[in-house]
Amino acid sequence: MDAGLSPRYVIAEVERLGIGPDRVPALLVRPESPGPHPGAILQHGYASEKAALLPFARQLAGLGFVVLLADAWGHGERFPTSGPNWMTDMHADYAMEVIQHTVEDVRAGLATLATLPQVRTDALLVGGFSLGAVVALIVATEDERAAGVASLAGASLSDLLDIKHFNTRPPSPETLAYGEAHDAAERIARLAPRPLLLSHGRHDDLIPARGSQRLYELARPAYADEPQRLALRLYEHRHDVSERQVREAVEWIADFFLPDGTPLAGAT
Predict the structure, then answer these.
(1) Could you tell me if 109 and 70 are in contact, meaning their C-beta atoms sit under 8 angstroms apart?
(2) Alpha carbon distance 88, 75 (integer Å)
(3) Could you tell me where the DSSP H helices lie in 199-242?
């Protein structure tokens, strides 16, 4: 891996825990130092599981973040023993069911992080890849506890529902209603001046980069006074995350969450 920011902390052994009333299986990656530290929730992508973003989490933990990684609904240790699953149903209705449940789980994850004595409640980052980025954008635009967002290959629900491979049959009225009610594109301006990173593979053939580009353009007016807090970064790959992309995301996040230990602008 190319050189980036040097680790500042020794990383403790990865812990297992359950979050929320459903005891969602999760991993906690943190510095050995008691803190206080900024916190982060990183949500994995569709057809993956919680350990997929461990390299991302370890880089953040080495800089002083306490990072939570949880299995999305129907994924990892939560894979269903019967009925539809991500291997058999790629339709918009099932994908939206996964998103709805995972949004609630990420909100529970924010609450879990906020109860940890070594975590700063004013510095909670929400991020993820693909499905996880879609979820992160929903949560952050609706929950003021999120002090910043790192979206890797994400999109608003309005853009996601336009993708052809999710439309083998028309989405149900319930799916369309949820998509309209929780469309990050309609609320993206609410994030300002909280840091917002939109990072995407330019040649993404699963969730096209135009979704991140549209969010960036919608957000720009709200960030006019502090444009450095909004970033769009495009990479020469498809639906994937490169080492360079993760490293640059970590460096960008650190600029806002690790300057001098003071509260972030816009955080509550």
Answers:
(1) yes
(2) 13
(3) 210-219
Q: What is the pTM of this model?
A: 0.92
Going by C-alpha positions, the residue among 123, 82, 95, 118 that lies closest to residue 268 is: 123
What amino acid is encoded at 58 in this protein? Answer: R
Number of alpha carbons in the 13 Å side-chain half-sphere of residue 186: 9
Residue type, 233: R
pLDDT in tens, the chain (268 residues): 334 678 889 999 999 999 988 899 999 999 999 889 999 999 999 889 999 999 999 999 999 999 999 999 888 787 777 777 665 666 788 889 999 999 999 999 999 999 999 999 999 999 999 999 999 999 999 999 999 999 999 999 999 888 765 556 788 999 999 999 999 999 999 999 999 999 999 999 999 999 999 999 999 999 999 999 999 999 999 999 999 999 999 999 999 998 654 444 444 3
Q: At what angle do helices 92-115 and 131-142 cross, to 10 degrees?
A: 60
Q: Which residues have CB under 8 Å from 261's CB, separation 6+?
A: none
Any idea what DSSP says for residue 46?
T
Per-residue burial over 227-238, b = 16 or more CB atoms within 10 Å of its CB, e = otherwise: eebbbbbbbebe
Do 191 and 219 touch, CB atoms closer than 8 A? yes
**105, 76 contact by CB (below 8 A):** no
Q: CB burial class (10 A; 0-12, 13-18, 19+) of residue 28?
A: buried
Q: Are strands 24-29 and 66-70 parallel, antiparallel or unpaired?
A: antiparallel
DSSP per residue over 48-95, as a string?
--GGGGHHHHHHHHHHT-EEEEEPPTTSGGG--SSS--TTT--SHHHH
| Rg of the chain in Å (alpha carbons) | 17
Amino acid at 138: I
